[in-house]
């Protein structure tokens, strides 16, 4: 047993370097100034404040600064794309895409790539190419892609019970039966009791110090909350797709368990320093540096577009280096019967019946278009169409979470129109 532990320690030390992401404290001056206009630690993440806070989210919490690497993907010069030449429909009729995207969908930026090169980019509401923006649940996709590299290295078996890596979860009736893959696909069968007015249990966000100091001191880690999660009695483990943030947090804890490093450290080393990003990023965390793997990424619109470009380029950056395993990318595009069947249990299936959710990433078939999607709850959307190499990256600050109107407009009108017209 001792020799096995020593061998594992040596393997991990040679796989991961000593440099770590930097823990950054909340910006107290910024927080105090924000409070003078009614934006506080308790409400900074509300939809009403989104236009003011999405560009500054990491300043409200602790965060881990992830530094970029030496290779930077050169997007080239914009070729030019006139949004006003095309239109989409809203409640009151048809409008130019610029009006729809900026004014009706409350988007603050849009970056369009094709085959890794810049077609055009648009910035509104104080955004620019170097400005980070809270990505919300787009973070989930980055956490999963980080895990996929560890799987490729043989450190994680996706078919193993998640309790192999997180034995603390044996007390949860749902997680005790779920595989890592079922957790990654949001098919874990867990049951979350939502706190009033929220789409989550605030014990989770408390231990993450998302809105200030933790009010549940008995919970030292997000895995402590995971151990308390109950089980649904209407479906079996693996049967239904049920989108819950705590599943992603458990994936982040698996990353920590098998590497002995914090999620931000591993994400920085395996993705941020290798992908070709142009800017550093911040991954929000608690005061212990335990990252919010389900929604804490603050990054530029260009960099999340480059990440999707890697997926549509078979997992390789534009320097030819394999960043994300091609097997993982292929599995997203192809799907399988388990995730197709599970999708039917979700409200999303009413919008897009021919789609699935696998490894924290959605795959849509809408009309003639098949595209991958990273999605955040306030309108952050990045899509990539493998067949054409087109990437569309939106950064939204929508005041209503999961508004049916904006979701329909985005996925059934704006995205198909752009994919068709950019391809020419």
Counting helices, strands and paired strands, the structural category is: alpha+beta
Helix content: 25-40%
What's the CATH architecture name of the domain at 2-134 and 262-423?
A: 3-Layer(aba) Sandwich
Q: Would you state the CATH class of the domain at 2-134 and 262-423?
A: Alpha Beta
Order of strands, widest sheet: 6-5-16-15-14-13-12
Shape: globular
Count of individual beta strands = 16
For the largest beta-sheet, the strand count, sense and barrel status come to: 7 strands, antiparallel
CATH superfamily of the domain at 2-134 and 262-423: DD-peptidase/beta-lactamase superfamily
- The low-confidence runs, each spanning 5 or more residues with pLDDT under 50, are 1-11
Which SSEs are present, and which pair or pack?
Layout: H1 2-15, E1 22-24, H2 28-35, H3 50-53, E2 62-66, E3 87-90, E4 93-96, H4 97-104, E5 107-114, E6 117-123, E7 132-134, H5 138-152, H6 180-184, E8 190-191, H7 202-207, H8 222-226, E9 230-231, H9 245-259, H10 263-272, E10 281-285, E11 297-300, H11 301-312, H12 326-334, H13 337-343, H14 348-351, E12 355-358, E13 361-366, E14 369-375, E15 381-385, E16 390-396, H15 404-423
Antiparallel strand pairs: 1-2, 2-10, 3-4, 5-6, 5-16, 7-11, 8-9, 10-11, 12-13, 13-14, 14-15, 15-16
Helix pairs in contact: 5-9, 5-10
Task: Tell me what you see in this structure.
It is a single chain. With 424 residues, this protein is of the alpha+beta class. Helix content is 33%, strand content 18%. It has a domain at 2-134 and 262-423: Beta-lactamase, CATH 3.40.710.10. The chain has 15 helices and 16 strands. A 7-stranded antiparallel sheet has the order 6-5-16-15-14-13-12, with helices on both faces. The chain has a 5-stranded antiparallel sheet with strand order 1-2-10-11-7. A hairpin with a 4-residue loop joins strand 15 and strand 16 (390-396).
């Amino acid at each position: 047993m001792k020799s096995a532990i020593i061998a594992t320690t040596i393997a991990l030390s040679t796989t991961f370097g000593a440099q770590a992401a930097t823990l950054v404290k909340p910006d107290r001056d910024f927080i105090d100034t924000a409070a003078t206009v009614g934006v506080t630690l308790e409400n900074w993440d509300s939809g009403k404040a989104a236009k003011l806070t999405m560009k500054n989210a990491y300043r409200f919490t602790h965060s881990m600064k992830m530094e970029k690497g030496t290779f930077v993907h050169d997007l080239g010069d914009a070729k030019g794309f006139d949004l006003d030449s095309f239109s989409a429909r809203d409640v009151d009729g048809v409008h130019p895409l610029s009006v729809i995207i900026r004014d009706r969908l409350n988007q603050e930026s849009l970056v369009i790539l094709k085959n890794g090169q810049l077609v055009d980019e648009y910035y509104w509401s104080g955004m620019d190419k170097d400005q980070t923006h809270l990505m919300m649940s787009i973070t989930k996709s980055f956490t999963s892609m980080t895990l996929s590299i560890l799987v490729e290295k043989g450190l994680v078996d996706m078919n193993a019970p998640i309790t192999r890596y997180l034995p603390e979860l044996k007390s949860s009736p749902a997680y005790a039966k779920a595989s890592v893959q079922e957790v990654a696909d949001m098919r874990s069968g867990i049951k979350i009791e939502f706190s009033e007015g929220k789409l989550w249990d605030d014990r989770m966000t408390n231990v993450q110090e998302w809105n200030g100091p933790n009010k549940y001191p008995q919970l030292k880690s997000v895995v402590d909350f995971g151990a308390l999660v109950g089980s649904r009695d209407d479906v079996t483990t693996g049967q239904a797709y049920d989108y819950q943030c705590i599943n992603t947090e458990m994936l982040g804890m698996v990353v920590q368990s098998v590497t002995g490093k914090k999620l931000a450290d591993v994400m920085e080393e395996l993705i941020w320093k290798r992908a070709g990003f142009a800017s550093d990023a911040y991954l929000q965390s608690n005061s212990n540096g335990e990252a919010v793997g389900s929604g804490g990424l603050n990054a530029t619109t260009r960099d999340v577009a480059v990440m999707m470009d890697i997926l549509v380029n078979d997992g390789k950056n534009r320097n030819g280096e394999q960043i994300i395993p091609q097997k993982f990318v292929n599995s997203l595009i192809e799907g399988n019967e388990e995730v197709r069947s599970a999708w039917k249990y979700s409200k999303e299936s009413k919008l897009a019946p021919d789609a699935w959710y696998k490894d924290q990433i959605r795959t849509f078939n809408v009309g003639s278009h098949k595209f991958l999607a990273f999605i955040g709850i306030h309108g952050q959307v990045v899509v990539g169409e493998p067949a054409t190499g087109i990437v569309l990256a939106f950064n939204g600050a929508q005041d209503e979470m999961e508004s049916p109107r904006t979701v329909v407009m985005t996925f059934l009108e704006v995205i198909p129109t752009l994919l068709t017209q950019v391809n020419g």
